[in-house]
Amino acid sequence: QAKSRGKDQIVVFDEAMAGSAEQRMDDEIALARAITEEQLTLHYQPIIGLDTGRPVSAEALVRWHRPGHGMQAPDRFIPMAEDSGLIIDLGRWVLHQACRDAAAWPDRAPAMADATVSVNVSARQLTHPRFLADLQSALAESGLPPERLILEITETALISAPEAAMETLHAVRACGVQLALDDFGTGYSSLSYVQKLPASILKIDKSFVDPISGPGAGTALSEVVIKLAEAIGMRTVAEGVESPEQATALRLLGCHRGQGYTWSRPVPNAELQDAAMRLAGAADVPQPAS
Ligand code: C2E
Ligand code: MG
Ligand code: MG
Ligand code: MG
Fold first, then answer.
1. Superkingdom, according to UniProt (predicted)?
2. Which of 61, 72, 128, 160 to mutate to test the pocket of ligand 1 (most atoms within 8 A of CB)?
3. Rounded to two decimals, what is the model's pTM?
């Protein structure tokens, strides 16, 4: 009896595994096609200078218009792309597209003419032997000045291959491209390690911003992070700022930049000019040539 139940369980287990493996295979094939068939698109979220209130940068965030499934957020497919290795092709597409888009902002979105563009880079992508060649070709093909490009990396990306990653990061800096440490405070890297990174920008994770309800209220941890960044000469960007009170509190703490729904959600590239104009809220912002 026990034996037959065991057998049943084995069958059930096998079917469940086969089902999920098959599903996974379908998802991977669909994502591989998405990369070549232009189902991916980039949305841009403005990043605001807290001193002036004007947009100074925008982060490229990938979306997948998956046929029959609607628009997929990156959390639904980036982990799969990382596990399967598709992140190499996907990341290369994102890098090229973001450079092309930003290179055209002076004509197509003049309110962002001088703005930098931030691109997220996965660990596996950063440590891939062709990464630097891809970066250089994205810059050369688009004509984007390297100073207008920022690569966002996470602490976890660096922990998995610290030495190889560090070498690549120095080469990136040598190209004139800037580096930002994303989601700071969610990883486990030591402060001495962070200090050794050639990154000039530290992005304060949303989890530090969430508890802030106004100046002096819930600011203890973000204050420590801003002071730390100041001490090691890094500029700060607060992520996930959802209220004007949070924005004011962060500005008073000396945070340089903010990003979040209080200013703008990520928008398609074609809507970035309007979003930036609204944010700048000033008549002297140049209009696109028609
Ligand atoms: P991230 O790099 O930390 O990007 C910020 C995320 O926070 C974005 O989510 C953005 O839409 C969201 N966000 C911004 N402001 C607010 C706010 O005020 N409130 C809330 N609740 N959320 C806010 P998204 O676009 O879903 O991206 C999620 C993550 O996926 C990104 O986190 C990044 O790690 C990854 N990702 C996105 N695009 C790419 C890409 O092209 N390559 C790679 N490797 N990863 C990407
Ligand atoms: Mg990011
Ligand atoms: Mg982030
Ligand atoms: Mg984050």
1. Bacteria
2. 61
3. 0.91
